[in-house]
Amino acid sequence: MTAFLIRRLAFAVVTLFAVLTLVFLLVRIVPGDPAQVILGDQASREAIEAMRVRLGLDKPVWQQYATFLGGALRGDWGVSMVTGRPVIEEVLKVLPWTIELTLVSLLLGTAIGVPLGVWAAVNRNRAVDYASRISSLLGLSFPPFVSAILLLLAFSIALPWFPVISARTGSAGAWFQSITLPAINLGLITAAYITRVTRSAMLDVLAEDYVRTARAKGVPWRAVVWRHALRNALIPVITVIGLYLSILIGNSVLTEIVFSRPGLGKLIVGALNQRDYTMLQGMMVIYTLIVVAVNLMTDLAYGVADPRVKLQ
Amino acid sequence: MTVTQHTPQPAPSPLAYMARATVKAFNANKTSWVGLVIFLIVAFAAISAPLLAPHDPVEQNILYKLRPPTAEHPIGTDAFGRDILSRLLYGARISLVIGFVSTLAAMLLGSVIGIVAGWYGGRFDVIVMQAMDMLLAFPSLILGLLIVAMLGPSMTNIILAIALTSVPAFARIARAPTIAVKEREYIEACRALGYSDTRIMGGHILPNIFPEILVMASLWLANAIRTEASLAFIGLGVKPPTPTWGGMIREGFENILDSAWLAVAPGLAILIVVFALNLLGDGLRDAIDPKLKGEA
Questions:
Q1: CA-CA distance, A183 to A101, in Å (whole number)?
Q2: In B117-144, which positions are buried (b, 16+ CB within 10 angstroms) versus exposed (e)?
Q3: N- or C-end of chain A: fewer Cβ atoms within 10 A?
Q4: Smallest Cα–Cα separation from A243: which of A187, A194, A289, A311?
Q5: How far is C-alpha B225 from the chain's CA centre?
Q6: Contact at 8 Å (CB) between B242 and B94?
Q7: Of the candidates A137, A203, A246, which has its C-beta nearest B282's C-beta?
Q8: pLDDT in tens, A188-214
Q9: Any chain B CB within 8 A of the CB of A186?
Q10: How far apart are CA B295 and CA A121, in angstroms?
């Protein structure tokens, strides 16, 4: 287990550096001088020079890179070009909203997707199976902002059950009101992915010899499916959930926009519109950290779901 | 089949063989036909948009803004009085062109990376694929958004962003069958004949793994169209007034309270195209590799 963990940790560190480097390069290929962009066309030469010094743009590129990497790891991501407040402060302010939404929709997606996938696999090529396959294919065809708009139209506008702006806080009721529609939107799309992979993993496992053996020695079918088969089908399911999280993070951006819910999505779109490059750079750092952390957790989950992984 | 036991027939031409194999793959899962037909209808509508569109898609008419459907404007008009049906038809062109070009670019680059990595193996393979895994782990919408935001929202930059984020997927798709195929006897024979690595990879491995790549391409085309629409919805689409489906939803969303149809119509258009491509690709994948059945 230790060797497995060390290897995964090393990969995580390499990923972190590689993506941070990519972000650094991407932000620097922006056409034009950021100082000029911030100050506008009317700025004097001296003002632009001063801004360049303030942003550290007067230093050689390798030095900027070292400063960026050091800062990124220490949590010093610079100051927003628009609000003047530290980027990390702005990010941490909305981060809980996004994490909460992602976790609730992941739970919802798993709670719907795993049983539905098992049910479809057990009833292979029957009506249930076809219905679940078509509906899950439809689910993963939905652009998340389109499904969000339909939900908003149905349950906030036609039937005024939920707020149009999902940003209420204070009580449990307010929390429930603000998270329900966004979480249903992301949860149903997540469920579509999880249903498909659970079904296919279960089909593989149900064909195994040990499933037949369990049946032959008289284990009830229900126990065979849920205890013997599902346990073994979980590894590919966890892999897909881990990979899917990065899609979910992208989808949450679109969902947050439609439901006017605070979060990383709203923050990044605001930064885009106002050309707040330090904010964008900081947001990429936080996304990278989240992705690396999620991958590590996925690896740990393998170990829990399948003790054999630890030995490899 | 007209081949009898006694008269040896010449081998069917590669083209005829491929055509038969394709029809067989489609027949294995009837939903692929449904997907193909819907997709072809949309593609036809996009190509013949100048003939089908009742109005100029960018012509404004403030007097006729936000009108409900009439005989003259079958799906009504938007906030600038522009005909929505015409904008949908022209928008399909943008979606399909960006989708096709970016998927093709990703397919070419990704396949080359995957085949070369699979063929040479060893440390080279490990390093290349780890790099691909890193890219794959990063949210592609966020990465695409950053690329387009930095380079500017032009058609070329959007294509570049979508293509770059899809390369790792194609590299993975091409690598696995390359590894399976390279141990076969006919590849062994190529080596014995002294063929160069490039010739074996291009002339003998690629044709054998091409069906798998092509099927995945149909699924990634769906993904590319959805990503383009998402970028446009965020405000990083091809610049207005050029109609794009994502951009139309963005504009329609501003009038969601009184003219919901403005956002719903292009939304349904995206859903129909993406669903058709997923039906097509999913059915074909079942036919080509039963083991992949239903995997996301």
A1: 6
A2: bbbeeeeebeebbebbbbbbbbbbbbbb
A3: C
A4: A194
A5: 7
A6: yes
A7: A137
A8: 999 999 999 899 888 888 888 888 888
A9: no
A10: 13
Closest by Cβ to A30, choosing from B150, B271, B292: B150
Cβ–Cβ < 8 Å for B269, B245: yes
Query: Distance between alpha carbon A278 and the CA centroid of its chain, in Å?
Result: 22
Burial class from Cβ neighbours inside 10 Å (0-12, 13-18, 19+) for residue A217 reads exposed
DSSP state for residue A155 in the 8-state scheme: I
The residues pairing with A86 across neighbouring beta strands, listed in sequence order, are A79
B149, B253, B278 ranked by CB distance to A137: nearest: B278
pLDDT over 70 (residue A34)? no
Pure H helices in chain B:
14-28, 30-47, 49-52, 84-120, 122-137, 140-151, 155-181, 185-192, 197-200, 206-234, 245-254, 261-288
Are B213 and B170 spatial neighbours (Cβ–Cβ below 8 Å)? yes
Binary contact (B138, A199; C-beta < 8 A) = no
Predicted TM-score (pTM) of this structure: 0.86
CA neighbor of B100 nearest in space, from B50, B169, B163: B163
**Does the interface predicted TM-score (ipTM) exceed 0.90?**
no
A246 Ramachandran zone, left/alpha/beta (phi>0; psi -120 to 50): alpha
Cβ-based neighbours of B65, under 8 Å, separated by 6 or more: B77, B78, B79, B80, B81
Mean pLDDT on A106-123 = 92
Give pLDDT tens digits for A130-145.
899 899 999 989 999 9
What is the distance of C-alpha A82 from the center of its chain? 26
The Cα of B119 is separated from the nearest Cα of chain A by a number of Å equal to 24
Report chain B residues whose CB lies below 8 A from the CB of A163.
none
Q: Determine, for residues A254 and B136 on separate chains, whether the beta-carbon distance falls below 8 Å.
A: no
The structure tokens listed for B279 are 């039906």
